[in-house]
């Protein structure tokens, strides 16, 4: 991680000084924020393999980069969990040095093309932008520009691979291949470690592959980023379940000196209300995994998913996963696709852009309404959800207004399929196998400031330590874990680690 003094020092580059002189601040701030080109709603609601957001042109990216004021104290950096030097990469774009822009990004972020698409910039870096905080205008489109630089690199065929130190011969293992592990693996490879990532599934990428639909994050984007990690020397082993295929102790015997656990939050939560065990009530995790990873949307695959075409689909919850599930059901041909949420629009945790896209595609939102029980037909298949209207009280611990049931307000909604998307809990597999790993009351692995667990050679990060969270926060954990593990191994093997 770089501190503020580093960023200020970087600002002395002559080309950046010239750029600041080339356009007055008033001219920069008078420009409107760029609008991301999108597929038309009627077209996109029927397809999986085309992105909704098309991407910026070169001209649009340069124009947006010119809005950046190159602030003396770049508070946008404070909002980035991996501390990207945001002003520097944006000024590289303004100077038409697109290869330089991606090189800056990759100093801090292993997955810029991914983060440019799915990270909640509006809550992180963009929320700290000078435009937002001081000018009360729309912020610089940092996420769009990150995506532009990453896509330009991929499409150019000239990929920038970060510099890797000479091998120190020390073997380290990552468990799980989601964003936390990938960020950890990249930083460990940079330091010269022999890195292997073990994945239980048949595809690399974790939640990036099984949880996020291709119309938001195409698999080719993830595969490109993973290929770059392989070029850095990172090895991947799939269909490998730690504790089943081999234990951590067996890997220690094979010479692995430290471990990073990034197995995510794959345990779905349910409401535990009457009728919830009815057929065709399933978790968003299960539904999205069957579609995204197992070919459930393709006619030539036998992946069992409920028949969605022509059906009424109710999705419970209003986060990004709920948006993914309801929009996927539309693409599978749902007659009516609904979000049922117990709070109001203002409290929805989903990204505003995802909500906008869902509405444009025809999703129906039913606010301040909560399921209380399900009604099944004679074959045990769900046919109705009984809901109760809610009123909002004072804010609770989450900062959102607490929903309060309104007595006597129950009514029925027709639903042939119900997808529950009310959150996830940490994957319980490894904590259950290794009781020496300290966990909290929610089942998350407890770590210190270096992401080190109660077992000294085991580090952890991402959703296994946080519960359900964001890609970029998981990556921040992975980078801290890499720094912590490097410090640990340097103390243990000073003759090998420089």
Keywords:
15% strand, 21 helices, 3 domains, alpha/beta, 5-stranded parallel sheet, Fumarate Reductase Iron-sulfur Protein, Chain B, domain 2, single chain, disordered N terminus, FAD/NAD(P)-binding domain, globular, 498 residues
How are the SSEs placed, and which strands pair?
Elements: H1 4-10, H2 14-22, H3 25-29, H4 41-44, H5 58-65, H6 75-78, H7 86-94, H8 98-106, H9 112-118, H10 130-135, H11 142-156, E1 171-175, H12 179-190, E2 194-198, H13 207-210, H14 219-231, E3 235-237, H15 248-253, E4 256-261, E5 267-268, E6 281-283, H16 284-292, E7 312-316, H17 320-331, E8 336-340, H18 352-361, E9 364-366, E10 369-376, E11 382-395, E12 401-405, E13 411-414, E14 417-420, E15 424-425, H19 429-433, E16 458-460, H20 463-466, H21 471-492
Parallel strand pairs: 1-2, 1-4, 2-3, 4-16, 6-14, 7-8, 7-14, 8-9
Antiparallel strand pairs: 5-15, 10-11, 11-12, 11-13
Helix pairs in contact: 5-7, 7-8, 7-11, 8-11, 9-11, 12-21, 16-17, 17-18
Walk me through this protein's architecture.
This protein is of the alpha/beta class. It has 3 domains: 4-156, Fumarate Reductase Iron-sulfur Protein, Chain B, domain 2, CATH 1.10.1060.10; 171-266 and 425-492, 3-Layer(bba) Sandwich (FAD/NAD(P)-binding domain); 270-422, FAD/NAD(P)-binding domain (3-Layer(bba) Sandwich), CATH 3.50.50. Helices cover 36% and strands 15% of the residues. The chain has a 5-stranded parallel sheet. Strands 6-14-7-8-9 form a 5-stranded parallel sheet. Helix 5 (58-65) packs across helix 7, helix 7 (86-94) packs antiparallel against helix 8 (98-106) and helix 9 runs antiparallel to helix 11. The chain is globular.
């Amino acid at each position: 991680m770089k501190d503020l003094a580093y960023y200020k020092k970087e600002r002395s580059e002559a080309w950046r000084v010239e750029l600041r002189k080339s356009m007055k601040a008033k001219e920069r701030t008078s420009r409107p924020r760029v609008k991301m080109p999108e597929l038309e709603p009627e077209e996109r609601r029927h397809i999986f393999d085309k992105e909704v957001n098309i991407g910026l042109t070169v001209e649009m990216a340069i124009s947006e980069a010119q809005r950046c004021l190159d602030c003396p104290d770049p508070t946008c950096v404070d909002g980035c969990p991996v501390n990207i030097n945001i002003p520097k990469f944006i000024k590289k774009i303004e100077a038409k040095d697109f290869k330089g822009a991606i090189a800056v990004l990759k100093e801090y972020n292993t997955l810029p093309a991914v983060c440019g698409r799915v990270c909640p910039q509006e809550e992180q870096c963009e929320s700290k932008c000078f435009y937002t905080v001081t000018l009360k205008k729309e912020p610089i489109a940092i996420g769009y520009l990150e995506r532009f630089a990453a896509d330009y690199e991929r499409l150019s065929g000239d990929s920038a691979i970060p510099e890797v130190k000479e091998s120190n011969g020390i073997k380290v293992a990552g468990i799980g291949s989601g964003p936390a592990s990938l960020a950890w693996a990249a930083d460990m490879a940079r330091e010269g470690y022999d890195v292997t990532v073990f994945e239980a599934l048949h595809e690399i990428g974790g939640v990036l592959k099984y949880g996020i639909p291709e119309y938001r994050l195409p698999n080719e984007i993830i595969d490109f980023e993973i290929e770059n990690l392989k070029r850095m020397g990172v090895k991947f082993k799939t269909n490998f379940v730690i504790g089943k295929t081999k234990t951590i102790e067996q890997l220690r015997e094979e010479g692995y000196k430290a471990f990073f656990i990034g197995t995510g939050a794959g345990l779905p939560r349910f409401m535990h209300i009457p009728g919830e065990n009815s057929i065709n009530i399933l978790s968003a995790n299960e539904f999205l995994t069957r579609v995204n990873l197992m070919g459930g949307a393709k006619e030539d695959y036998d992946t069992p998913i409920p028949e969605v075409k022509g059906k009424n689909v109710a999705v419970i919850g209003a986060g990004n996963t709920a948006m993914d599930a309801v929009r996927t059901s539309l693409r599978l041909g749902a007659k009516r696709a609904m979000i049922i949420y117990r709070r109001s629009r203002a409290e929805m945790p989903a990204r505003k852009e995802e909500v906008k896209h869902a509405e444009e595609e025809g999703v129906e939102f039913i606010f301040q309404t909560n399921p209380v029980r399900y009604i099944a037909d004679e074959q045990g298949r769900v046919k109705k959800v009984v809901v109760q209207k809610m009123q909002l009280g004072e804010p609770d611990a989450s900062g959102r207004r607490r929903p309060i049931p309104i007595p006597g307000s129950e009514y029925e909604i027709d639903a042939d399929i119900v997808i529950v998307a009310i959150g996830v809990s940490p994957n319980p597999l490894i904590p259950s196998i290794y009781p020496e790993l300290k966990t909290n009351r929610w089942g998350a692995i407890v770590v210190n400031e270096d992401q080190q667990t109660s077992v000294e050679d085991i580090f952890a990060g991402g959703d296994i330590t946080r519960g359900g969270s964001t890609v970029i926060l998981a990556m921040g954990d992975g980078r801290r874990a890499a720094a912590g593990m490097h410090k640990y191994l340097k103390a243990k093997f000073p003759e090998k680690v420089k």
